[in-house]
Amino acid sequence: MTPSFIKPRIGAYARYSTDLQSATSVNDQLSLVNHTAAKYGGEPDDALVFTDEGVSGAVANRLGLNRLIRVVESGMLDILLIEKWDRLSRDDELTARLRKLFHFHGVRVIAISDGIDTAKDEPLLIQMKGMMATEYRLALKKQTRRGLMERARLGFVTGKIPLGYRAIDAGDGTARKRPVIVPEDADVVRKIFVRYESGLSPAAIASELNIEGVLSRHNRGFSASMIRELLRNEKYIGIWRYNERRWELNPVTEKRVPRSNDDAAVITHRDEDLRIVDQATWDATRERIRAQAETYPGQTHTGGKRGGGTRGVHAFTHLLHCAICSGSMQVTGGSGSRRYYRCATNRTKGVAVCPNTRSFREDALRATIFDGVTDLLLGREALAYARARLAEADAQLDAAREDRVREHEGRFNRARERAKNLAVAIGAGGPMQALLDQLRDAEQEAKAQERIIDEIEAGSSLPVQLATDAEVRNYVLDLQTTLDERPEQARAALSRFFAEDGITMVPTADGGYELRTELLPGAMMLDASTPAGGARRALNKSGCGGRI
Question: What is the distance between the alpha carbons of residues 322 and 505, in angstroms, rounded to a whole number?
C-alpha cells in the first residue's frame, strides 16, 4: 500500500491490434488514462507510458508490454492505468500470469472502462475478464473468417493479390472488391514463365529483370524466392483458392505457424477472364518444376524450405553483412569445406541490386573470425579501452547510486516526520483508529525505505576483473566447440562480442575480403566459469574499433 503522503508512481499502457484499426486508438486510450491519473494522486505528465501498436493482445512478447514488465520488476511502479483489461491481454493464461506478476510486485492495476481495481476486486473477477476477452477474440476470428469465405465463394478479393492484378470496387455499394488484370503487369508475368520454360533459373530471371529495371509489386526488385512463388501460383490460370491453410499461434514460441485445412474446407473459384498464362505454358512450367524436384530433391524449394524440411542453423548468419549493400551474408553450397558465405542480395536479386559476387569458404571464415577475436581480446588497445570504459561505468554507477540513496532518504525522512506528527495527534486525543492506521502505514514506509537504502549501499559493485590471457583462449576454444554442437547458442555468444552491426565484409582489391567490426568492451570481462553462450556483462554499444 502506498502511503497517502507520498505521490504514487503511475504508469499507463495502451494497445491496438491491427492495421485495420485506427492508430489514434492509442492516443484515445492515453487521453482517458490522463484524465484519470489525478484521481489516484498522480500527475499525468509524470506517468510512464507504454504502448504497442498493431499487435494482438493474445501475444505475450510485445515490445511495450516487455518494457512495462521490466519496470514493474524493478519496483519503479505503484499503479498501472489501462482503458480496459483486454488492452493488456486477450488470453486467459496471459491474464493469469500478469495478474500474479503485478500482485507479487505490489502494483495496483486499474482498468477504467471495466471498473476493475486489483486493490479491491477478487482475482476470479479479473480472470473471468481474461476468459471473456479470449472468447471475444476467438468469436471475432470466426466471424471474420465466415465473411471472407462468403467473399471467396462470390469471387471477391479476400486478401493480398499477386503481381498482374489489382483490386477494384465491386460496384454493389459495399466495401467488397474484385480482382482485374493489369495488362502491363500481366506481360511481366508471362515473360517470367517464358524465361523459366526456356531453361533459366529463378535467380537468373530475377537478375535479368532487375538489370532491365522491371519492378515488382510495391516497386521493389525481384528475388529468386519471389520468382519461385510466382511460378507456382494457380491464380495465373484463373483458379483462386481460399482457406487452403490457417495460421495458429505456437504457445511456446509465440510465432504463427501454418496448418493445412481439409480439402472439403477449401473454397475454389474459377474464372477464365482472370487467366494470364495459357495452359500449355503452365503445364510446361509444372513439368520442369517436377523434374527439378526429382533431379535435385535436397534443393527443391517448397514454401521457403528445402526438401520440405527445416533450414540449417549457421552461427555467423545475421552477424555478417555485405559492405556494398548492407545485406546479410548467407551460407550457400553443401556441407563442410564446400559451404560458402555469399551476399544474399546478390545471390537472389543479381548484380543490378548488389554487384558483390564474391564468396568466402565457411571453414576459412570461421578460423579468421576466431583468430581475430582472440587477437583483439588480448591486444593492448582493447585492454586499455576496456579499463577506461570500466572506470567510466563505475563512476556513472556511483553517481546513480548516490542519487537513488538521496531520493529514498528523502522518502524515509518524510515518513519519519509523518509518523512523529501522527504520534502527537494520537496523544492529543484525535480519532484513534484512523490515526493508528496512518501511523502504521508511515512506520512501514519508513522501514521499507530504510531497507531499500541498505540494499543500494550493500549493492556497491565489486571491482570487475578482466579476463586473463588463458581464460580468453579457453573461452574461444569452448565457443568453437559450441559452434559445432549448438550453433544457435554459439551465435548468441558471438553477438555479445560485437556492436549491433556485427561484422562487415569488405571486398578487397586482391579478390578477398577484409572483415571489419567493433568489439564491445564487455567482451573483456569474461566469467571463466560461464559456458559459451552464458550471460556476461556488456557495458554499452560502443567499443574499440578493430579489424579482423
Answer: 5
Residue 57 and residue 133 in contact, taking contact as beta carbons nearer than 8 Å = yes
Task: Note the pLDDT tens digit of each residue in 446-486.
Answer: 888 888 887 777 765 555 555 566 766 676 667 777 776 77
Last residue of a domain, one of 251, 279, 305: 305
Residue 433 lies in a domain: no
pLDDT of 393 > 90? The answer is no
Amino acid in position 296: Y
Residues of the domain holding 109: 10-139
Domain presence at residue 426: no
| Domains of the chain: total | 3
Which positions ≥6 away from 369 have C-beta within 8 Å?
A: 316, 494, 503, 515, 548
In terms of Cα–Cα distance, which of 321, 316, 318 is closest to 339? Answer: 316
Give per-residue pLDDT as tens, 11-45. 889 888 764 455 457 777 787 777 777 777 666 66
Task: For 497, list phi and psi in degrees, rounded to 5.
Answer: -80, -30
Are residue 372 and residue 483 in the same domain, yes or no?
yes
Can you spell out the DSSP letters for 323-335?
TTT-PBEEEEESS
Res. 237 pLDDT band, cuts 50 70 90: very high
Residues 311 and 305 sit within 8 Å (Cβ to Cβ): yes
| 122 found inside a domain | yes
Both 222 and 99 in one domain: the answer is no
The residue written with cell numbers 489501462 in the block is: 82
Q: Per the structure block, which three cell numbers stand in for 320?
A: 555478417
Q: For residues 341 and 327, what is the distance between their CA atoms, to the nearest angstrom? A: 12
Q: Are 283 and 90 in contact (CB under 8 A)?
A: no
d(C-alpha 146, C-alpha 216), whole Å: 32
Structural domain contains residue 339: yes
Biggest CA–CA distance in the chain, Å, is 102
